[in-house]
Amino acid sequence: MTRQDDLSRRGMLMKLGLLFNGAVGVILAVPIVRYLLSPVVRERNAGYESWLAVGQLDQFPAGQTRLATYRHPAANSSDGDTANIPCWVRNVDGEMFQVFAINCAHLGCPVRWFPQSGLFMCPCHGGVYYADGSRASGPPERGLFEYSYKVEHGKLLIKAGEMPTTGAPTTSLINIALGKPPCA
Fold first, then answer.
1. How high is the mean pLDDT of the chain?
2. Which residues does residue 149 pair with via DSSP β-bridges, in sequence order?
3. Three-class secondary structure assignment of the chain
4. Is the alpha carbon torsion for 81, 85, 90, 95 positive or negative?
5. What is the pLDDT of residues 75-109, one digit of tens each?
């Protein structure tokens, strides 16, 4: 009763299974392809390239380190207070500044400034940094992350859209690569 042209039950289930597996494959492939192509098609938020005001120059007396905050440039209205990012501002000599991320270079815990000892200390694993942000002791392998800064119209501005990583060359890493011992 069956003809050669008719689809058998086995053949129909086989084609249905292939169709289902193909649909699942396409559904799984979409996020993978988007991930692979994201560096090419990703739009950069204009805020990442902007300079953000940390405060007036008179808020940071010479020879002192103070806590300051800025609003993350890619913040949404739903972010609330979590978009306010703290940083440490060190006024070296009245003209030169250093602006450090508050996060320890080891695991990202917030470091605290102790003016009595002139050290930044991490409460999580005992990381210690000198006043200039370089590593003093503990598990961190590098100093604190430092923001680029500039002064305009009496305000201290930082470029804080993207944080530098350990992959960025620093003077201490360059000195080690040249065979010079690190200073810490």
1. 82
2. 158
3. CCCCCCCCHHHHHHHHHHHHHHHHHHHHHHHHHHHHHHHHHCCCCHHHHCCEEEEEHHHCCCCCEEEEEEECCCCCHHHHHHHEEEEEEEECCCCCEEEEECECCCCCCECEEECCCCEEECCCCCCEEECCCCEEECCCCCCCCEEEEEEECCEEEEECCCCCCCCCCCHHHHHHHCCCCCCC
4. negative
5. 778 888 888 889 999 998 888 999 998 888 888 88
Q: Which residues pair with 66 in a beta bridge?
A: 89
| Domain residue extents for the chain | 9-42, 46-177
Percent over 70 (pLDDT), the chain: 80
Whether pTM > 0.85 for this model: the answer is no
Considering the domain delimited by 46-177, tell me its CATH architecture: 3-layer Sandwich (2.102)
